[in-house]
Protein 1
Amino acid sequence: MTKIEWVWLSRGVRAVPRPVATPFVWFVALAGALLLVAITNRLGEHGRPAVALIALSLLAALLGLRARFAAAPGTAVLCWLVLNGFAIPPAGQLTWAGHRDTTWLACLLAAVVAGTTVARVVNARAAYRRVTQRHDPWA
């Protein structure tokens, strides 16, 4: 015997959001990082990179929500380059202060990976609920 299942037409399967292309994520990371560092420098925080690091970490996490995991290292490096080049004096010069810069890179990379992981988990849970949940309009 064939069972007929009634479903709402508007309740079709929705696709999981596709990640944004990596070059676009990197472009937004560079432009956003320059903008955020300019804003923090303008607010009088030049020479105190902690505020800029927090702002760039939030930007990196937000970018991670729509990025692929492969974009994470490049996003972190671009944010670090802007942080290192323009948030600490002398502006425009890249330096490497071993422990500090390693920590900054790790913080930015962790933010991007955390954002990407959160997005993947949320999307996977939503897709799982859509697939496993049976909607009976007559019940």
Protein 2
Amino acid sequence: MARPSGFAYEARSDGTVRITHHARRATVLRGDRAARFLGEVTATDPQRVMARWTGDYRRGNERTARAHPRNQG
């Protein structure tokens, strides 16, 4: 599976975290979830963490799977 890319995050002064994917809003985290995300994103690969938190981790293989013979008709 290809490495996730195109994610960015912005921690705001009100405690929320805004995660974008290719400059489009993917999700906004608030409260305890925002704090957990910030702790995790600094410890490991930020792109993979953001992909997992936004639910975007599945991207990349759907098109290939759609073309597989067992998924036809």
